[in-house]
Recover the amino acids of this structure.
C-alpha cells in the first residue's frame, strides 16, 4: 500500500490530482512535458491533449500520482518549460470529468440482448455488431466506466481502450451582483 501525500486537500483517499495545463501549440511540446516527467520519475496516470478554443494553444489534461511526489514540485517543474502558459489544479468536487471507452465484447446470440440492454442502462452506444462480438462506446466519469467494465467482464472483453481524462471547472451557479 502506498503512502499518500498528507498535503492532499481532497483527503487521504485521493492520491491522484487533475492538472489542466495550457501550453503553446507547437511541435514537440508534448514530448518536452512527457520527457520532464520521465526524467524526474513522476507518474502520469492519465493524459489527454487537444487544441484549445484558441488554435495557438493546447490543453493538456493530466492526472498525476502524488503518492510519491508533492504536487507543488510537479507544478514548479512544469512552469520551467517555456511553452507552459497556465496550470490549474481541478478539484474533483468542483470539476466535470469525462473519459471515453470503446470495448469489443464477446457475446453469443443469446447474450446479445443482455449486453445491448446493459449498454442502454449505462447510456452507451453500439458501434458495430458481429457474429460473436459487439463493439460498444461509452463516455462518462471514470467511476461509471469502471462499473460498466466490471459488468462486461462476465461476457468477455476481447479488447478495450480508454481515453485519458478530460476535465473543466464546474460553472459557478451563484447569481452575479
Amino acid at each position: 500500500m502506498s503512502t499518500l501525500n498528507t498535503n492532499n486537500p481532497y483527503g487521504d483517499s485521493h492520491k491522484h490530482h487533475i492538472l489542466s495545463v495550457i501550453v503553446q501549440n507547437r511541435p514537440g511540446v508534448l514530448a518536452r512535458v512527457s520527457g520532464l516527467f520521465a526524467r524526474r520519475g513522476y507518474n502520469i496516470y492519465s493524459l489527454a491533449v487537444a487544441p484549445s478554443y484558441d488554435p495557438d494553444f493546447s490543453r493538456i489534461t493530466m492526472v498525476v500520482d502524488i503518492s510519491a511526489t508533492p504536487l507543488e514540485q510537479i507544478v514548479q517543474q512544469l512552469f520551467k518549460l517555456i511553452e507552459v502558459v497556465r496550470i490549474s489544479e481541478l478539484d474533483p468536487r468542483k470539476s466535470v470529468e469525462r473519459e471515453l471507452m470503446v470495448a469489443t465484447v464477446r457475446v453469443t446470440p443469446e447474450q446479445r440482448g443482455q449486453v445491448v440492454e446493459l449498454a442502454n442502462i449505462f447510456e452507451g452506444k453500439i458501434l458495430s455488431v458481429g457474429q460473436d462480438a459487439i463493439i460498444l462506446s461509452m463516455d462518462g466519469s471514470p467511476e461509471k466506466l469502471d462499473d460498466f467494465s466490471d459488468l462486461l467482464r462476465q461476457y468477455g472483453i476481447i479488447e478495450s481502450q480508454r481515453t485519458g481524462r478530460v476535465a473543466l471547472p464546474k460553472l459557478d451557479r451563484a447569481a452575479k451582483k
In short: Strands lie at 16-24, 44-51, 57-65, 84-90, 95-106, 125-129, 133-140, 157-162, 166-169.
